[in-house]
Design goal:
The protein is α+β, with helices and mostly antiparallel strands and 234 residues long. The chain is 36% helix and 17% strand. The protein has seven helices and nine strands, in the order H-E-E-H-E-E-H-E-H-H-E-H-E-E-E-H. The chain has a seven-stranded mixed β-sheet with strand order 3-2-6-5-4-8-9. Strands 1-7 form a two-stranded antiparallel ribbon. The longest helix has 32 residues.
């Protein structure tokens, strides 16, 4: 009888020991999980008060990428002068106008035919958000100072993955833009004018020499400041 009782007690003790061990193991696992975050943990989102910076220029898609109906957000691009190109003669190229024939005399011509006066040459594209934002500033400038120099907008979207010429004219109409604007079929313009992001605005003096090159959207105050400096040297 005593032997039978002993045999019954042994399995029960084993079960109790195993149960205790399981409790200890589970406690250790829970303690580890509630301690320091594992190396692969996802960082918590920034606080709602964290400020964000709006893009000042649209970087050009990689070659072969497909343009979408609306421009994708891009990181801010530093704005300012492209010094390696300033001081050299402005490369010539042929372009066709969407509008502004009455100002330039005809609808298809070379940049060299506009020479002999200061030029503000603005490169833009239909799918470039910052290009849209600066166009009203350029329009105001044209209306107030168009008699002092020539403002010319050239669409290069077909070479930068940011839209085709056949649709670009619609943007001008939608924004009420009336200054001379067109497009070029000369793909070399992108490299010759050091176009690294859109928009890019190049200031050319009356001698046909590049005075300043601005990458990114330019506002009226910045535009007037560069033009004043350029005209002071005329």
């Amino acid at each position: 009888m005593r032997l039978s009782a002993l045999r019954l007690r042994l399995p029960l003790r084993c079960v109790a020991v195993i149960g205790a061990l399981l409790v200890l193991v589970l406690s250790a696992v829970v303690a580890t999980g509630c301690g320091s975050s594992p190396s692969g943990a996802i960082a918590s989102p920034p606080s709602p008060s964290a400020a964000t910076t709006a893009p000042s220029a649209t970087t050009m898609p990689s070659q072969g990428s497909e343009a979408t109906a609306t421009p994708a957000p891009t990181a801010p691009v530093p704005t300012g002068e492209v010094t390696a190109f300033v001081g050299s003669s402005a490369p010539d190229f042929r372009f066709k106008l969407f509008q502004g024939d009455e100002s330039l005399g005809k609808s298809e011509l070379n940049l060299s035919e506009v020479a002999g006066q200061p030029i503000v040459l603005n490169f833009w594209a239909r799918l470039c958000g910052p290009c849209w934002s600066e166009m009203p500033e350029l329009q105001d400038f044209f209306e107030e100072r168009g008699d002092q120099l020539q403002l010319l907008g050239i669409d290069v979207g077909q070479f930068t993955g940011l839209g085709l010429p056949k649709d670009a004219g619609k943007l001008l109409d939608a924004l009420g833009v009336t200054y001379p604007a067109g497009y070029t079929d000369d793909a070399s313009v992108v490299s010759k004018y050091r176009i690294r992001a859109m928009p890019t605005t190049v200031f050319i003096d009356s001698d046909g020499v590049v005075f300043h090159s601005w990458t990114g959207a330019i506002n009226r105050q910045q535009l007037d400041a560069v033009v004043e400096r350029m005209l002071a040297g005329e």
